[in-house]
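The authors assume throughout that readers already know how a fold can be written as discrete tokens. For illustration, here is how one protein appears when written out as sequence plus structure tokens:
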Amino acid sequence: MLVASTQWFERTLDDSANKRLSVPEGFLAVDGILDLYLNVVDGLVVYPKVIEKRLMSELPFMATENIMMDAVKAGGDRQELHERIRELSMEAGRNVKELGLDNNLLELIAADPSFNLTLEELKKTMDPSRYVGRAPRQVEEFLEEVIKPVLAENARELGMKAEIHV
């Protein structure tokens, strides 16, 4: 910026050496980054069951607002339930993070009489589709409108491999 301000965007030689080095090196760096990216994603395998298991282990934490509102509808006091769900969430989080146990938040909530909800009722709230909003439709639209045209335009590049030498 300083060079541009002193030169008034006129062509001078006081930064030409810098440009001759930094611009090509920038392109080489991007090329290296893309090679690394290709190397990392080559052979990438997605395991839907692993993703589902991880999602279901975290879903009780994400569903606490809905659980609390269901408990309010069942006659609970919102302020008291809010504090209880915070305490139970902290306990369940401690069980997962410090003790390596499974997430037992639903069991803790079902065992607490202030919620007035059974474990079966709580498990019914564990449908992930209740918590994603428009995300599936937005992903479909993005794939259809953005990704597929880019892939079609660059079809000859698909399957390219990159060798990394360190």
